[in-house]
Amino acid sequence: MGTKGKYSRVGLNARKIVRGATFSGGLVGLACASIGIAHAQSSVTLYGVMDVGLQYRTAAGASNGKAGSAVLLASGNELTSRWGLLGSEDIGGGYKVTFKLESGFSPTTGGGNFAVPFPNDTNALFDRGAVVGITAPWGKVLMGRNWSPFFDGISAGDATGFMNFGSLANAVFQNSSNVNPKLGLAGIASGANSPANGGLLYTWVNNSVKYMLPDNTYGLSGGALYSFGGTAGSFANKQTWSANLNWTNGTLGFTSAYFDARDPTGVTNNPWLRALSVGVSYVIGPVKTGFDFAKFRNPTTGADQNYYYLGAAWQASPVWRFTADWMYLQDLQNSAAGAQLYKVGAQYSLSKRTTLYADIGYSMNKAQGILGAGSDTVVLSSPATIGRNQIAIGAGLRTLF
User: Is 84 in contact with 100 (CB distance < 8 Å)?
Assistant: First the structure.
């Protein structure tokens, strides 16, 4: 759900777009053509991902009083299907005005993710981000619905690429820090306090200003973000802040990230979502390995979970890539909710844009564990049956544009 992924981009010069367009009205056409000439250094890039495949899961829900299996055609087994626009205008002196809009959708239905259910995001056309800002020699400043620095940090700590299926993404979108114990299992499955909504809040932040370090800063990357709650008489209400700092020399890498948010509903000013992540990675020829520790907690409800993650990716040839992941969930509030997750995967590149893939995941849950083994696009609304182990198999086709 939260993965950015790598995709090809087809840049479109703004001047060429204007000259090739058809306008109703000479004045409009003349004005637009003038804009294209004045800003010849401007560009707008259209990009996207479409990922569709089959997914099979055991212990996927109740059937005649027993845990039943399920098979479905799923969107986003590995990467979330989405499209976006990226714009840039060079205004001189090393400064650029930039914008980015990104929207998720499901190729299986043609529907968009416009009604993201968690607080403050209902009917969000660009659910995956909408920012405008300045790129300068001293860094970037982006305003709007930003990717959180916490996401930037924890995703960089995933050696296999932060895929939707059986990776560190499962920790972000299945942790209990957003769960209200008073709501029971119904609150876990859906609603403002579901794990899915908590994961989305960790990934994108509304009404925020984000600063990012300039590229190639002695191997360092990272940034800081602050979100304005916008509530009259209370600066703390719905307040969020996050930061990350990473370093790499191309072989060895270190990642770190932190997140802190008040009650996202705005009903109280209580501290609600807290998370930190630290990781290390190492590249040996065609193999990248990594370890990450992540903690998710909620001081108000007492939720406190640790995730320990190991991952490895092997680029066996120009067309074959293999991945392996292991994650251990330690629940400090409820030890019976602990779990482990194992996953292996393979990708075969048909071209630079198109890939075939297959993944197998297995989650081992304790008596009250519900950690799902499949992709987050599925387990967000349907976690593993409580206390049951789960096998998940996914296979599909992904193309970039």
Answer: yes
The residue type at 222: G
In the chain, which stretches have pLDDT less than 70? Answer: 1-40, 65, 115-122, 184-191, 380-381
Cα–Cα distance, 313 to 5 (Å, whole number): 15
- CATH match for 49-400 among 2.60.40.10, 3.40.50.2000, 2.40.160.10, 1.10.3720.10: 2.40.160.10
Do the Cβ atoms of 277 and 157 come closer than 8 Å?
yes
* CB 245 within 8 Å of CB 219: no
Listed in sequence order, the residues at least 6 apart from 338 whose beta carbon sits closer than 8 Å to its beta carbon are 328, 329, 330, 331, 365, 366, 369
Q: Are 262 and 237 in contact (CB under 8 A)?
A: yes
Cα torsion 200, 206, 211, 215: sign:
positive
What is the C-alpha radius of gyration for the chain, rounded to an integer number of angstroms? 22
The backbone region for 301, taken as left when phi is positive above 0, alpha when psi lies in -120 to 50, beta otherwise, is: alpha
Paired with 142 in beta bridges are: 133, 210
Rounded CA separation 356/373 (Å): 20
Cβ-based burial of 215 (10 A; exposed 0-12, middle 13-18, buried ≥19) = exposed
Helix boundaries (H) for 74-192: 149-156, 168-174, 184-189
> For 72-125, what is each residue's pLDDT tens digit?
999 999 999 999 999 999 999 999 999 999 999 999 999 887 756 555 556 788
pLDDT value of position 121? 58
First vs last Cα of the chain: how many Å apart?
18
Q: To 10 degrees, what angle do helices 195-203 and 149-156 make?
A: 100
Return the closest-CA partner of residue 354 out of 103, 51, 14, 31. Answer: 51
Return phi, psi of residue 210, to 5°: -125, 130
d(CA 327, CA 172): 12
Q: How far is CA 6 from CA 93, 352, 400, in A?
A: 30, 11, 8
User: What pTM, to 2 d.p., does this model score?
Assistant: 0.87
316 CB contacts (<8 Å, ≥6 apart)?
A: 286, 322
